[in-house]
Amino acid sequence: MRTYKGLRVFEGYALGKLKVYETLKVEKIVGIGMDEEFKRFEQAREETIQALDKSFMETLSKLGEEEAQLFETHKLMAEDLDFEDAVKAELMGNVSAEYAVLRAGEELATMFSSMDDAYMKERANDVKEVANRIVSFLKKEDKGFNLTEPSIIICDDLPSSELMKLDKNLILGIIFVKGGANSHVSILTRMLEIPAICSIEDLEVTKDLDGEYSILDASGAQLLIGPEMKSITLYAQKKKEYEDNKERLKAFKGKPTLTKDGKKTMIYSNIASSFEAENAIKNDSEGIGLFRSEFIYLDSKDYPTEDEQFEHYKRVVEEMKGKEVIIRTLDIGADKKIDYFDLPEEENPALGFRSIRICLKRPEIFATQLQALYRASHYGNLAVMIPMIISESEIDFVHEMCDLAKDNLRKRGLPFNEKMKIGIMVETPSAAIMSDVFAKKVDFFSIGTNDLSQYTLAIDRVNPNLTANFNPRHRSICRFIKMVCENAHQEGITVGICGELARDEIMLPFFLKIGIDELSVSPAYTLSLREQISKIDTNDVDVDKYIY
Amino acid sequence: MKSFTYVIQDKEGIHARPAGIVVAEAKKYASTVQIENKGKKADLKRIFGVMSLCVKNGEEVKIYVEGADEEAAALAIEKVFKENL
């Protein structure tokens, strides 16, 4: 048995034979004359356009207009004169039409990928896909790929038009060996709920993989080729459990989150990129409780501009269609390092120069982020959360910075929400102890259970010698949480819990009993958490057991 | 020559879908049609050209139409902008 690790596109399990989708290879580089090659190009382009019309209709009937529209755009790209000009220019070098089309596609893709706009950057893949499509017609290979029996598709990458063309009942799963988790075809795969993984190293897609019996464990982001009987039994069992579970949880979709005795709470999602908002919606999440804005900084080679950040924030709030989105401001430090921040090495990064402390020292970074956030507040229900707060003076500083950001936008004539909520993370013992005072100054609290446990217990949560001592259910922490919750409600503000402790089966009844307003977990756990909550009667919960 | 200005109302700016619609409209006419934004011009009959301008919400664009059917083309294109952007 050979095991390969990748990244998850969509969870689930598949057991069956592999079916190889081979990537186009252009061997023929020299052409048979410019005019002749151009005619071949025109012919293939015509066939591509007809095929795209077909994909458009298929997608329209299966997934709806928004998803289908992309094929219409692909068609315009195929017809475009700039594209044609680029092909002509390549053909001057006496190359084959196949080679010219691929080069022209790459050229235009580079134009998009160099744009300062996340949406436009993604269009680079569309151009490449269109070029590949035309090449496949040039090579007369387009009709080659089809499924005749239920199979797991393995490919370097798959054009989205190919995916739409296939009989979905025959696709058990997909492995995009070289694809990314947010490409158009990956997004469609998630919409279709097909188990899939991507980005696998050390695996070459060759014809001899065809027909190999394999297990795709998309939940665990791995592929097992040629498994033993033992693994097959194990994964067949996992697959059944997963599917039964999914079926059962469907009953909780679109329903409010209620305890057995009718107490209402909200389930929000923790996400780390704007692309994951789609996942939150799909899982029926009621909002975003923690959007880690660091990823924008981590993905960037230099400080991200206001416009770049704005695009990401706007995308999430719009995707969430009016549901609350809580974005946490920059939370980095010596343990989560970013080169261009040029932070010094530290003996004790958890207690060091990090998050809001960096923003205090370097307000220009914070100002850019706040302006981007206020701008995005115009497009949906956005709230901002500040990490690592320990003192009132920090909260005052944040409010001053917010006023400056608002002034800035007013001067530039840009719309924003004057009343955007500003909350804080309660993740230090200091913030918990001072929560009665802080509650008067902010719009909401969110308890970060991981850091609060680490700082309260004075235990490094990654120290292997102390794993057994690191108990986030410790009574000291329960006392803190209860106190923070009471202080928040005293001042009429909401309090949430973000961190995986939110779905801990022992802690959950306690959280519900003390009246935590919102629990924020990974999107995938939304429905199972809603089911879990529906079984808890808060009248049966004894809070004293948690704190004495 | 005919020209008109328009401020983009669409929240996403001129993204792929409406770009496709205006390009398709412009292609119906013999006149040359150009779009200008932030000092850069592009051919409104070419989707790559239009998208490369990366026009955002709230920005102003100026459209120039020149040719035998400029009158009708300018009217029709302006209508398409108003309806889709």
What's a concise summary of this model?
Chain A has 548 residues and is of the alpha/beta class.
Description:
- The complex is a heterodimer of chains A (548) and B (85).
- By secondary structure, chain A is of the alpha/beta class.
- Chain A has 3 domains: 2-23 and 144-231, Phosphohistidine domain (Glucose Oxidase, domain 1, 3-Layer(bba) Sandwich); 34-140, PtsI, HPr-binding domain (Enzyme I, Chain A, domain 2, Orthogonal Bundle), CATH 1.10.274; 259-547, TIM Barrel (Alpha-Beta Barrel).
- In chain A, 46% of the residues lie in helices and 15% in strands.
- Chain A is built from 21 helices and 17 strands.
- Chain A has helices spanning 34-62, 65-79, 81-91, 97-113, 118-138, 160-165, 184-191, 229-249, 277-282, 294-298, 306-319, 355-361, 363-377, 392-411, 429-433, 435-438, 449-457, 475-490, 507-514, 526-534, 544-547, and strands at residues 2-5, 7-10, 13-21, 151-155, 171-176, 196-198, 213-217, 222-225, 257-258, 264-271, 288-292, 325-328, 382-386, 421-426, 444-448, 494-498, 518-521.
- In chain A, strand 13 (382-386), helix 14 (392-411) and strand 14 form a beta-alpha-beta unit.
- Chain B has one domain (2-84): Histidine-containing Protein, Chain: A (2-Layer Sandwich), CATH 3.30.1340.10.
- Chain B has helices at 16-26, 47-52, 70-84; strands at 2-7, 32-37, 40-43, 60-66.
- In chain B, helix 1 runs antiparallel to helix 3 (70-84).
- The interface between A and B is medium-sized, with 22 and 18 residues.
